[in-house]
Amino acid sequence: MVDTGQQEQSVRSHGHDAAAPPAPGPYEAYEGGSPEAERVLFDKLADELMRVQRTHRDTAGATQLLRTFHAKAALGVENARLRFHDDLPPDLCVGYARPGAEYPAVVRLSNAGGTERPDASPDLRGMAVRVQAGPEETHDLLATSFPVSHAADAREFVAFAKAMAGATSSVEQAFGLFVRLPLAVGWGTADRMRRNVRTATRHTVGSLARETFWSRGAILWGDAGPVRYQLRPAPGGTPAPPPDRGDPDYLRHELALRLATGDIAFELCVQRYRDERRTPVEDGSVEWLESDAPVVPVALLTVERQDLDSADARSAARRVEQLAFNPWHTTEEFRPLGNLNRARKAAYEAAAAHRLGLRFTSPEPWHNTLLGVPMRAAFGLVNRYVPWHRLPVPLGLLNLVALRQTLRRFNLIDPEMRQAPPRPDPAPAQLDEQLRTRRSYDGSYNDLSAPGMGAVGAAFGRNLPPVYRPDLFDVPNPVTVSDTLLARERFIPATSLNVLAAAWIQFQVHDWVDHRRCPAGGRTVEVPLPPGATWHNTPGGGAEKVMRFAENEGIDLPGDRPPILFANTASHWWDGSEVYGGDERTATSLREPGGGAALRLEDGHLPLGAGGVPLTGFTQSWWLGLSVMHTLFAREHNAVCEALRRTYPAMSEDAVYHTARLVVSALIAKIHTVEWTPAILATEVIDIGLKTNWQGPPDRWLSKLGLWLVEANALGGIPRTVPEHHGVPYALTEDFVTVYRMHPLLPDDVELCDHRFGQRLESLDFPQVRGPAAEVVLRKTGLASTLYSFGIAHPGAITLNNFPRALRRFERDGEIIDLSVVDLVRTRRRGVPRYNDFRAGLHKPRIRSFGELAADPDTAARLEDVYGSVDEIDTMVGLFAENPPEGFGFSDTAFRIFLLMATRRIQSDRFLTADFRPEVYTPLGLDWVEKGSMSSVILRHCPELAGLLPRGASPFAPWRPVVPSSG
Fold this sequence. Notes:
By secondary structure, the protein is α+β, with helices and mostly antiparallel strands. It contains 30 helices and 17 strands. It has a domain of 294 residues: Catalase HpII,  Chain A, domain 1 (Beta Barrel), CATH 2.40.180. The strands form five sheets. Strands 1, 2, 3, 4, 5, 6, 7, 8 and 9 form a nine-stranded antiparallel β-sheet that branches. Helix 10 crosses helix 17, helix 11 packs antiparallel against helix 25 and helix 12 packs across helix 16. It starts with a helix and ends in a 26-residue tail after the last helix. It comes from Streptomyces coffeae.
């Protein structure tokens, strides 16, 4: 099964750990002054090392990525063992280091370069050892054949790697060492680094079995404190022969001859920390002299006698090459220390995942980098006088590209700052192969290198730094704000849309975001009511002077950090969880009995649960619109299953189910991108831009040239790219949740009409189509007539004083709530900045007066009466009050979050980019998505509606009404 205990553990390790991080020892000093600042730097350095990897591959003309360093292995064996000495000093008896304890080990010996060069080439050598101390306890020991690093810290290390990347000839190497390196680190530092490298690589190596390998960086050894370790040849053994310079692989061949007749053994030794002057922890370029820190033997590493040319040995060597060694694969007692070691956590994880195809990167073409800066500056200047939506279409499109680039640079914030400081982890278990081609039930393993990214339970991110102001939670009173500025006085229609658009966005939001509420009897929020007002908080309860509702469950944070980090109880991915559920138990219960691929339906309708609400992936806030959408896409899933069975009869039912889920989820993402959004943001620029997101630019040379100049990676459409997180782990954000508060779209009543003759069947208030009543109405009216009724009716406009009456007083989970007040309070308490700060944070000018926000004098006066200052305006109120661009259904400020996140939701998703391919989806499945649309879904299940859908527009635009016959 896709969900396993191992995966759950990995998800938890990626998400926030409530335990406080380990305090830095007296030996460590974080670059930038804090673990968080240092981690940001290390993540950037990791990206640069991945670029070095690609340079090595391209220079060597290789077809696949190699290790960034130590690319060429001379030995990879699984049958080794590490045995601690019986007389191990008592203060070194820590953790797995016990007298006489013996553990199986894996050993890899290699050249240190990033390309596979002949063994006689000047180079360092390396040893990597993985000790299996228990079922879930590993210790990776990494050492190199020179006692010190050429680099004092991670910055120098990466600068050297970049300077030498791709340098194969002596001229290129000289240019890297004497030009590129000094420009990066300064002449004095470059000179020291060159001398270290020159000394280290002059050494002639005849046999790796007779070399000594040093850790160069320190590790903690429990209470004994920091040590550096070395692996030196054990006493005895034959000397190294002269190197055979005519054999490019002589080091491997020499080891094969040795192991054919006997074991190879190395002694593991440690040097103890003395003081920062003689044995520094942070500076890897300083040798710990044996005169200052004597060598203490602690264990013996033995590589057992074997035939390296046997089939078993060759298979073992291939498996070893798939391993990702990292000094952080250990326990807290043996935590790596020092800047270089801390950098290795992020760098090695990134490089290994990139090499193994688990992590992707798409470097920006040089011409995009070069042109991006002046383009962003130019449009920043233009937008002071002319907003993007008033520019000619070609310039408007380029303006949006520039704005999106700016938002990516400044408005992607990870509030968790994971692994700062870094923590040890066990070596990752073998990946379940099914996870490569199937969405997991809970959203884990979308990014195979970060299993918990975007999964159920992952925290919401941020687009703007949060502002936590408990003193303003009730200022101004949210009930007063709701009564004065949100309450629907009369229904204001959005005449360019139909009610299907309102149902659709709720259907989507349920897939994307859901904050967990405290259970009944748990923590509550109390909102004071205006003088003289009362509220009944529970059915049958007495009148109270406060409005009370359940608090959101937050993630506990260490230290003095404010309680504004929340987990998403849905996955952050576009994975159809509202249809399929967010865990294996729910997903299995919704399928046909016996493991069938299809979803359970009863005469084409969803089966009913105990409370009368249909059984589906997400059932909160249920109403007729959700019954329509869930029924439609459950039928669509089953249609895909039927087509897959017919086309691929050998597919198992489980494979059919998971493939159909991929297809339906991708189709939903496509519909939202190229149909719903252009309907609610009805402008030519948006229509072209969103279709470009999905399928690439229009087939016009000028459009393609413009995109090539500024964002060439988008030329084929995002599904033809690779996943890209733009430096911040993917997550939906609290700001995204805020701009998708679109409750004004919902009507106060629903008029049901017959799709054949146009006659009105009945008119129902919203409470009459909520909860269990919804499915009763749908089955009575029929899917086709309900779709038609929604298609000819308008939703509400997203503006002030248009919040649905039914949502301002309704029962949910034993509470009576006013959802407009809840929305205001949630936004404040989650730390989303108030409107003016929100607007400024998205690179728009601040408003200076209420009249600047609201053109209508009466509205401006009411805003001023409620808030007093423009800086106090609630974000949701400001977004509703804005005068949107022509054709827009919501504000330009809200659109900026959409502009950033709409692309990101597709671009970060492996199943909508690198794995959006026929090998994963099947050719039929990919074709289904490519040719599919909301119209095709509706007509597949209700073909009788063909003549009613709008021509030249999406089904979210008003349909053609049937005129009732006069006879």
